[in-house]
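Table S2 (continued). Query chain:
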Amino acid sequence: MKLNLTIPSSRLHEKVDSEQRKSTCHSSNATISISYADARRKLLLLIIMIELVYVAYMLVLISPVAAWTTIGKKWPSPPYPNLSYANTCDGTEWTATETSLSDWENIDATNPPNFYVYDPDNPNEPHISIWDPYEPDVTWDGRAIIWYSGDWIVFVEIQINEYYTSTYEFDKVRSVAGHEIGHALGLGDESEDKAVLMNPNSARRYDEFGIYKPTQDEVNGINYLYGG
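Corresponding output:
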């Protein structure tokens, strides 16, 4: 049984004030010594807490799985890494999509995808179909519709919405296409706050972060899915 899944895209700073110690003629040496010891212990505890927070913060930053996710499906092998595609987009959408396919082929992964043009004489359908509908009544500029059986992807349809992309500069269309190809390979959407290709918000992904091709995060995801 084939099912389908549609995926539309749409310093920690601590300040410690030093505590001034005051002595008067009425204070004994013993009293001054105890106050200093208490203050020193509290300061040491505060320093330790700050260091622990900093270490935790750095671990989040360097974690290799801090961003990428999957859709829970992937291509079997074969056909992966050799995936056929039919691209019937026009103009800029066609060129940007072809460029995005090359971007993905050239990632520094252990087993990157290899896309080849579908032979229309082949009795079987292509693995990936790409086209550019004109849909003014929707909010997505690109989407991937994924057919799967069990844990395996069997067919993907990528739609690049020309209603929006016709107003985009080339690399923004490339960003949209690259994002949807990521879904076609089995990667999921990420947080809109992350500077990665799988950020689902095109305005933030491209206009704010300037991302239009796979980052190291996507490479990590592909290595997880297909060996690495």
